[in-house]
Amino acid sequence: MNLIKRNSNLILPSLLDEIFKPDWNGGIQNFNTSIPAVNIKETETGFKLELFAPGLKKEDFNIEIDQRMLSISSEIQTETEENNETYSRKEYTLNSFKRTFNLPETVNFDAIEANYENGILNLRLPKREEALPKPKREIEIA
Prior knowledge:
The chain is mainly beta.
């Protein structure tokens, strides 16, 4: 069984993507919802998930498990203020994303580990003991 990714729960993503293009509000972009790339690899003992998110800190991530749903999200709000003799300007920027994955029942949810290194969030999702491959054995004929 493989991990299944969910990018969005939107019914009409193409319409909403068109409405919220950066140039929709006159060329001013004050939010960024780019979704980071993810690599998923299954091994005999578990799954490895790599999320490419350079420029963040480990404190910027929120990782949750609810039922069999793994959610990885980040939301960073920055504020820029510029004061001049003739004008004042203040802008807010919100960078956020959320990736959600359906986990197979074979994953040991209590043993999931995560670390962030060199711009990549790595998650190790080990399989339950009963899901691990059994060693080959010989059966004698009685």
